[in-house]
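Dear colleague,

Following up on Tuesday's group meeting, I ran the structure prediction for the two-component complex that the binding team flagged. I've pasted the input sequences exactly as they went in, so you can double-check that nothing got truncated or mislabelled along the way. The structure tokens for the whole assembly follow below. Feel free to forward this to whoever is handling the docking comparison.

Inputs:
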Amino acid sequence: MKRQALFNVGVLLLVLLFILSACGSQKTTVDNDGGTIVIALSREIPTLDPANYRMRECENVIRNIFDGLVTKTHDGKIVPEIAESWEAISDTEWEFKIRKGVTFHNGDPLTADDVVFSFERIIIEGGMEGQTSPRKGLMGPTSGVYKVDDYTVRFTMDEPNPTFLHGVVHQQIIPKAYFEEVGPEGFLKQPIGAGPFKFVSGTLNDQIVLERYDDYYGGSPDIPPVGPPALKRVIFKVIPEPSSAIAALKSGEVNIISGVPADMVPNLEADPNVIVKTVQGTRVYMLEMNNKMPPFDNPKVRQAMNYAIDMDGILEAIYGGNATRLPGALMPYSFGANPNLKPYEYNPEKAKQLLKEAGVTKLQVVIDTEPKRQNVALAMAAMLQEIGIDAQVRNWEWGVLESEIKKGTRQMYMTEWGDSWLDPVGFLNPKFRTNDRANWSHYSNERVDELLTRAERIIDSKIREEIYHEVEEILYEEAPIVFGYTLMEVEASTANVENWQPSMDGRQNMHRVRITN
Amino acid sequence: MKGIKILERLLATIPVILGIAVIVFLFMRLTPGDPVDIMMGREGMVTEAEIEALREEFNLNEPLHVQLFIFFKGLFSGDLGNSITRGVPVIQLIKDTLPATIELAIGALLFALVIALPIGIISAVKQDSIFDRIAMAGSFLGISMPGFWLGIVLIIVFSVNLGWLPSQGRLSYLVYLERITGFHVIDAIVTGNIPALLNALKHLLLPSITLGASMAAIIARVMRSSMLEVLKQDYVMLARSKGLSKWLVVLRHCLKNAMMPTITVVGMQVGVLLGGNMIVESVFGWPGLGRLVVDAIFNRDYPLVQGVVMFYAFTFVMANFFVDVIYTYINPKIEM
């Protein structure tokens, strides 16, 4: 009798499972109102305050809710957004004309006051309710922002700032009156911007639901089509585990995923319901050496490392066609890249010769890496072993490795640095100026320091370009690092997503995207 | 008398918890890595002044003992500080994510008990039968399967191939549910929201099975062996010889005594359910405490890690305490 009861419970559970699975499919469907798109976010985002973050994923969500003065096309050109036009009045003053008829999601018109308020929170020390915005550095020496009239704003800076416009791209406008009315906490609960979608509900660690703003002014006239968004709803869903994100894409639970690992591309391409798209990435991956630690304090040894590693071979084997080797420190399509540089050839004999000249007979190295680039590091170590170096690979968690690198206790390490501006100011300066923020190779050269500091404050792009060419030549000769590579960024969508184009800086703007059945 | 003893035990947990607080604080500070460096990411321009201002703001420039003092001062006034990366009070973050984690833990526990208790009992009563052999082989599998792998397999079968169950999150985006307790199942029942209830249960199913599988396997084995032990006792034979039916004896006389070791195991597994669910939460996009703390550790978000670990420690200590208390009621021969 009891057995019968157990059996009944089992049957009941099974029935429950079937009922549960029968009610409502997860697949996104299109209603006649434009439909809903679901985007996988690879990590939780900390905030929806446009002044208080430093994370690409966060910017992805924020820039669907908030618009800025200017924006970028998917291939990196700066075009107007809320600003109608702009001009540099002098080397240290810029003036922006603001588009009329732009409104926030609560219906308030966007005027110069809002622009001034938004930028003051960012550029003034302690301007963000007593805190300093972590986005201040992006604006360089910009020191003031003033209202000229209701639709004109002027920026002033202490020194000329050649990357000023790049910085403006990353700052979004918030409504002054609303913010002051509800306060910072109220604003975070119900953020309001002038972007294509308005925030409806959601939690940052789970899913964020946005809905079309019907009175949207249309977006940048330089990125057609201009007009209200086609989609009714945009949902960002946090899925930290890459294989889960891929499974969710295949089951139709999400429509767009980004950061697809290279080894998953063939699997996704074979799925008829999935479209894979790639775009040139802007992160540089390199093998750095500790220039302060013998024998890497000798340029000959560092050059030898560049000759000893068959970078083309490694990239072909691991990434197929999805990697681009860099001839020097900069990406070839970056501003200021020296077109005359040819990548170091793969020449183990020459490497051995250089080591001999440097008096290095026995060398033991450990290449430090994070697990995600372990395969590249292992291939590099194998090549170093071929010229008689005892090379090993060690895996680290980045936070630990970074602090060890900064202390100067490590020898060789795989690192990465993002350069979405494609401008050396955000790349060469932090990486190769003495003691700068990301100078992990501990490289120091007076001439390079002087040139980099000078170029940071020159507006004339011709002169800047020449300076960077010289810097690149010096770096090429002194080889503080083994020059690395950049990867294609792989994103994938379900087949019913249209008009969607991954962009170089990883931004996912849904304004122009459509979804069909 | 018993009451006083229980109170004594309760007071004894305080030094344990304070000790944990100090250890967590020191371990976080001794781990290499700088919260501000990590926060500013690996791209773009940042000025030295900006980095200094942020360090200042998070008290990172203070000497260690001053930071410890600040931490303890907050602790005693019930304030765990603000998260460095999110700028929100740690208590708030725990409150927001805890219901998700507990809901999943309860789901897993229910799954484990519903599956494991009958299997354990039947296997013991029908020792060496085919059922017993299959069940024990199955439980061996349950113990050895990594949660990560099981989760992905379940997703591939039930979400990707069959399309029956959702694989990510707690609720579909178009399902409206008023937040009262934060426990979706309870909120849905309280508000009489049937669609949301079904939707929440659907989302709960796969993660619960994944998290509960190894626990079910362990409980089934413990239940079986303790039941076998009890079945050999004289009083069982006596009851049987009085003519009581086999299952009546098992369920009425043996079960209570055989439950003791099982309760111990369940008590210990509560910690595993709360603390060991980081992987399951990641695989199923479940917005819980486990994922929060992993994220906080990678970001060196000191206040958040401290807060969450303190919370875990507290739960663990309390779970053990309650198991001890329950013992004394189930078996009066045991004293505190």
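Residues 38 and 328 of chain B are 50 Å apart (CA to CA).

Cheers,
M.
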